[in-house]
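pls read this stuff:
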Amino acid sequence: MSDAEVGIEVNEKSSKNWLGTYVEVITPTETEKQETNDMNSKIATYLGPRSGDSTMVDSSSEDGDTGLTNNQGRLLYLIHLHTAKAKDRDSKDRWLRKQSLDILVYEGVVSELFDYDYAPQSSLVDSRRVWLNVSQEGQSDIEVLREEELINALLVSSKSHKPVVLFQVSDKGQEVLQDLARQEKEAVNIFAHKPDSRELLKTTWDGESYWLESSSSGYKRRSTATDTEDVSYVSSAYIPQCLRFGGRPTMSNAHRAHESGQAGIDNIRDNDLEEIVTLNSVSMIVAEYIPFGSNQIVQLNNNVGSTERVQGGYISSVIDGDSSGTALELSPELTSVEVLDYTQTNHLNFEAEIRFREDLGVVQVETFGISMNAEGTCFYGLQLEAVMNRIKDNISLDHLSRILVDIQQDSSSIVDSVMSQYQRELLDLVFIGDAHNRNKINLIIANEITPHLTADEFMDKGEYENEFKQVIGDTKAAFDITEQDSLIFGSQGLLVCGPTARNYESLLCAYISFNSLDLFLQNFFSRVLLHNDDLKASYQVVERVEYDPLALTQSRNRLSTLSKEIIMLDQVLNYLDEALQMMDVPLEPPEQAGRSLYNRLELSGMRDMLVRKANDVKKNLTASQRNLDLLRERVEIESHNKTVNMSLQLEKNTRTLCSLQVANGDAVRSLKILQTIFAGIIAFDFLDRITGDWTVVDTAWMSGFVDTVIKEHTLVWFAISIVAWCLAAYLVSRRLYLANWKSRGVTTISITVNRSIDTAKLKELIQEKEKTTEERKYEGKKQLVKVTCKFLYVRVE
């Protein structure tokens, strides 16, 4: 196999999901597996046993002590391979993007170059939201390298108005790399380059997956960084009591907890997961904001059959295109729904049992407790009964991070099947056609955390924070509510641990409700900025109208699309305003622990903060509407200018055609006169043929004149010939002039009288006149007759 072919082959298996679409499951080929095994063996040869946390101390004379851990030294050298400083003013610096570094670190973990754990994390890649396997320990080491000033960081903005971080090894880092052991460098070189070569592999994104490829030889292999992993677990529906309004309690699947233990299978590629923190009796809520209203709640109740005698049933988002037919065929992967309680226009609580196909050997008993209300906040709750072979307690955060991904993905599928098509269109607009992967807020409640430490001890910028980042994103702060209860804030959610944590479900639900709306506002604001970029691009298209024949059509199409989008964005903003009016700030609890939690959550000011954000977005949207009006005027002006230019060009062409017509008429008349002259010449030549060589010069009566005038004087006959020629030319031109003058004297008058006529009398008038032409056109059932007649002109003195 050639270098260009290595690593390109993939096996594709298509399996139908419950929505009726196809999902590609790409598995590595035998060639790729063999290459990976060879690379791992070579790396292991240089590195020996994995000892990522030990400090490098090499006693050889060639290599010194860098003061970094093995992982940090390899990470620094990996960044060095992909970056460079400009040597002079004409050259350029080369920086490594953070997202590409995350992919390389993950691949290094899989190849056993780094001794890290990794977990799935929601990330934006080229305006698409995807799940990437990211190592939080690797992120921590990057921050250590920045703190030690071994790498420089550069902040730029992407075209989607998101911050982009880039890294480059500093001068100090270059000095440290000189002391890095050769076997460490060689191990990184084996991983970072094409097999058996020194061609550096770079990350590329094809819209679906990341690839490691060499631009020179064409070698490429697919990264599994976007492939999320599954674990076996059993869950029951969970809806906090503060969201319930009567109805039966949720059903428990505790009796099925043994099923995940019997299977005991996962597809995690990291065989050396390091468990630092575990939780007991875990409940999880994933929350998001969806534009809702009273009418949407009514439609939602109708969709799940709340008002029917037998409530619930199976649901699917498949649209029946032949509702009058006999049967419908679709995938058996459906969702079973049972209504718990509802009000016609305010809320709906129901259980949803997921029956999706999983990988072979993975057992997942998923039952969601779903709560939706008119203000737009949607809660998806689970109570974990068992994870793998662990019943109820000792749940690892590594496993929990993968369960949260499963919840977020499956919850999108469930809610997409019950909400209206109009709401799906709004979400697709805000999330740029990628609404299924929209990000949500996580709330994790546990009765106990192991080890039980203080808040300051949890925020160690090390292994504990790295564990929490897997489930709630970048940690912001941690607080001790009581001696037994801990509260940890993250960029993607909240973790509450302690025996009394469930006593304050109303405060926690209010917090994630506000935060889910805040998260939606952030996505909405980004979408408005992208809309403004589309407006600017449309202005550039309009400027090409003068010389691009397709620009005007493109401008009108873009204007139509932008107008539709801004109308929908304005509707979403109205839903947001209504939601903020409906949201109430909960009262502060009387007990000390409740007051402490209330103050830490900062609930009192969250609503006002969201109102200010919504007003700020409204300003941007109003500006976009005005810019759209200006664009519409600009398109109309350019369209008018183009019409005027076409009219002027048409008038110019018409004048040219008229001039050509006049010249053509003159030529026709000239041709007629020439025809007359040629007829005379032919007639005279015919007579000459009959009479032979006879000429008047040979006659007796003409001989005297010829002898005395013509023959005796040389130029007399020549002069007579010239005079005859001029006289003939004058007569011909005079005749042609009179003919042209008469033709230009014809005046055509066209009068349009917009009045009704008597068709019978019109027919009688036409029949009385002499017809010169008659033309008939048939267009469907319509017949058009055009008749030209002669009318006598009577001059009255």
Remarks:
- Residues 1-27, 51-64 have pLDDT under 50 and may be disordered.
